[in-house]
Amino acid sequence: MRLYVDPSHDPRPSPEAAGLRGSNQSGMRDWNERLVLSLVRQNGALAKSDIARMTGLSAQTVSVIMRGLEQDGLLVRGEPIRGRIGQPSVPMSLAADGAFFLGLKIGRRSADLALVDFLGRVRGARRRVYRYPTPDAVVAFVAEALPALLASLPADRRDRVGGMGVAMPFQLWSWVQDIGAPQSEMDAWRERDIQAELGALSGLAVHVQNDATAACGAELVFGTGERPKDFLYFYFGYFIGGGLVLNGQLFTGRNGNAAGVGPMPVPGPDGRMHRLFSAASMSVLAATMEAGGQSSDHLWESPDRWTVPEPVLDAWMTSAADGLAAAALTAAALLEIEAVMIDGWMPVSVRAEITRRTEAALYRLDLSGIEPPGIREGSVGAEARALGAAAIPLAQRYMIDQNPSVREG
């Protein structure tokens, strides 16, 4: 680790830093580098003068930091911007090939393994569809898919794979009735240490996080457009799941299950209270299709090509939107969230329509005393869980995170 010491640093806070200030104290090089990389990720290409203004660090200190990050292959120079006075400004951007990460999503109907670069772009991916997940099936899938993904990288870049993240539902053995799996096979999840097994298989540090929380993390790290500082995130998978961002940081709670929105009580069409699971999960849509004699298998194979009878899809979207609106109102009353973001394993057109219906349903509710959050579409899309899994080791190594929340092995 390099050490940055800047005794000339002006300790007065910069209003632009928004709480993200650098440190010139001994032993803080790692923090300073994470800070610079986080700011470049959030804001795009930045010059040394921009970083100095935003962090309060001196120009000399910032120059040393950014030169070191460039030498490490994590930042790349852009074209100089010439002004009327002084030296030209040189913006620095994240280097796509600076680091790579593996993201494994273990879902109730499928598993995905993705190789993601430093910018969050998927360089390669493999998929396995199954009726229900077992540890043996997941480990066998990774053993088969991993070598081909790593081989797709140039030989001189393979040592830049910085870890594997795993996004999976916690306590899978508790959902046997809901996913139609044998209890005896699902109980294997109680005994197996999937984190250790994948670590031994890959030779990498492995990090595990709840799947919907990881999807929320993908929106936070890789999302595009304006990012609210505080938002509740809904992800449509086999079950509806969620994540929470407070003050620009992923909040996971004591056990990693904060914002587990599925059990939230919401009013149903019969006037009784139901869990959000039963109103807004893809499993509900699948069950309705099966009851009508239509196979739902294709829902899990691709998020882009749904073939669902229009009345069935319409009724499901209305039920989901009403449930999300009620859950959003409850969250807004407790947390004063700025926005609600909606994403999932679904066609973009369906996501847009659910978002529109959720906003309309929210404004039909009694909002007295509540500042209603904005209702927005997520920007990452169907692959948010695998991308979010890859974002876990990325954030662990290269970003400022005030709420560390994963187990590392």
How would you describe this protein?
The chain has 409 residues and is an alpha/beta fold. The protein folds into three domains: 15-94, Arc Repressor Mutant, subunit A (Orthogonal Bundle), CATH 1.10.10; 97-214 and 386-395, Nucleotidyltransferase, domain 5; 226-378, ATPase, nucleotide binding domain (Nucleotidyltransferase, domain 5, 2-Layer Sandwich), CATH 3.30.420. It is built from 15 helices and 15 strands. The protein has helices at 29-43, 48-55, 59-71, 135-151, 176-179, 183-186, 188-191, 194-202, 211-222, 277-280, 282-291, 298-301, 310-335, 348-362, 384-398, and strands at 75-77, 92-94, 100-106, 110-117, 122-129, 161-168, 206-210, 231-236, 240-246, 249-251, 265-267, 273-275, 339-344, 374-377, 407-408. The strands form four sheets. Strands 5-4-3-6-7-15 form a six-stranded mixed β-sheet, with helices on both faces. A five-stranded mixed β-sheet has the order 10-9-8-13-14, with helices on both faces. Strands 1-2 form a two-stranded antiparallel ribbon. Strand 4 and strand 5 form a beta hairpin. Helix 4 (135-151) runs parallel beside helix 8. It is globular. The chain starts with 28 loop residues before the first helix and ends with a strand. Residues 1-19 and 402-409 have low confidence and may be disordered.
